[in-house]
From TrEMBL:
Its biological purpose: Involved in the regulation of shoot development and salicylic acid (SA) homeostasis.
Keywords: Cytoplasm, Iron, Metal-binding, Nucleus, Oxidoreductase
Name the record gives this protein: Fe2OG dioxygenase domain-containing protein
SUPFAM superfamilies associated with the record: Clavaminate synthase-like
Keyword Cytoplasm set for record: yes
Domain Fe2OG dioxygenase: 206-305
Family affiliation: Belongs to the iron/ascorbate-dependent oxidoreductase family.
Taxonomic lineage from the root: Eukaryota, Viridiplantae, Streptophyta, Embryophyta, Tracheophyta
Gene Ontology CC entries for this record: cytoplasm; nucleus
Subcellular locations according to the entry: Cytoplasm; Nucleus
Keyword Metal-binding: yes
């Protein structure tokens, strides 16, 4: 029996967690993907022989060794729009605490979580399932809570008060990722030949959305997904995961499994960096697979310019040979787009491109 709850809009709402807890032997029909979209889960096929980049950030602060780290970042951004980082300055206890707060939140009884349910993408703190349970044609095996995290003092009072440790633990992690993001954007600007401070002001006043995702153990991981293929609207997304599950698409359109590396964080380029770099770097297309055995958790910290600030190709990267390949867009434009369109049908970034094929 599915446990359903009516939300404020009167829609039926069943979380993936409730399905897992009820011990369903099969996923309900709405989760079944068309065969062409199903994941290949065999690790030998998924990972091939490709080594995804892992970059040690400890030398970023050493003036002599910084250029070699910047070079590694440039290579990773050009090849994948993706890399993992180690020695990133966020302690393992801060990461562990954040994951613990998330575990406790998703373990709450449904009626507690339903206090925060909303399918309006403009709601500053919202609990939900799938991408948008009210409109998704195929559902995804994922529950989430999303909230703004920067500036903290503006938003933290709206965060979940249950579990009681949530605010304190997630606060520490949010603040730490904000600092790391700033360092990464400086490095990425430098790797493009721009001033280190190119986006500094915008980032300082920028927005940060924390998407806390829960992918419960799924009885049929071969025919469902936790998240469909997409790229993030952000400048960068910093991702903390509790176990393996993320896949990225490489230049040859192959899906590559991202390995779980203890203590590492994942960095994904988002649409804002693609536009800013005038297409020298591309946002990474990624999706999430699910598994039979464990609940997987992740914190996707989506950093971006302020809500209404438009990003456009950096003037230094536009010239006669390489005219601006993108129009400009703001985070708000993206929210408007997703409240009206299905992201699995057309990527947002394709609507920003000047030459639409
Ligand atoms: C996201 C996302 C990946 C993951 O929240 O945008 O891509 O592994 N998450 O949860
Ligand atoms: Ni994403």
């Amino acid at each position: 029996m599915e446990e359903t709850n009516k939300n404020v809009l009167g829609d039926c709402f069943t979380s993936a967690m409730a399905l897992t807890e009820s011990g369903v032997p099969h996923v309900p029909t709405r989760y079944i993907l068309p065969p062409s979209q199903r994941p290949v889960l065999s690790p030998s096929i998924g990972t091939g022989s490709i080594n995804l980049p892992v970059i040690d950030l400890s030398f970023l602060h050493d003036p002599l060794l910084r250029p070699s780290v910047i070079h590694e970042i440039e290579m990773a951004c050009k090849e994948f729009g993706f890399f993992q980082v180690t020695n990133h300055g966020i302690s393992s206890s801060v990461m562990r605490d954040a994951l613990d707060a998330a575990t406790r939140f998703f373990d709450l009884p449904s009626h507690e979580k339903m206090l925060l349910v909303s399918d309006d993408v403009h709601t500053p703190v919202r609990y939900g399932t799938s991408i948008n349970h009210a409109t998704d044609s195929v559902h995804y095996w994922r529950d989430f809570i999303k909230h703004y995290s920067h500036p903290l003092s503006k938003w933290i009072n709206l965060w979940p008060s249950n579990p009681s440790c949530y605010k304190q633990k997630v606060r520490k992690y949010s603040e730490a990722t904000h600092v790391l993001h700033k360092q990464l954007i400086e490095a990425i600007s430098e790797s493009l030949g721009l001033e280190k401070s190119y986006l500094q002001e915008e980032i300082e006043e920028g927005s940060q959305v924390m998407a806390v995702n829960c992918y419960p153990a799924c009885p049929q991981p071969g025919i469902a997904l936790g998240m469909p293929p997409h790229s993030d609207f952000s400048s960068l997304t910093i991702l903390l995961q509790s176990s393996q599950g993320l896949q990225i698409k490489d230049k040859n359109n192959n899906w590559i499994c991202v390995p779980y590396i203890e203590g590492a964080l994942i960095v994904q380029l988002g649409d804002q960096v693609e536009v800013m770099s005038n297409g020298i770097y591309r946002s990474v297309v990624h999706r999430v697979t699910v598994n039979k055995d464990v609940n997987r958790l992740s914190f996707a910290s989506l950093h971006s310019l302020p809500m209404n600030k438009k990003i456009s190709p950096a003037p230094q990267l536009v010239n006669e040979d390489k005219p601006a390949a993108y129009g400009d867009f703001s985070f708000n434009d993206f929210l408007e787009y997703i409240s009206r369109n299905d992201l699995t049908k057309q990527r947002f970034i394709d609507t920003v491109k000047k030459n639409k094929f």
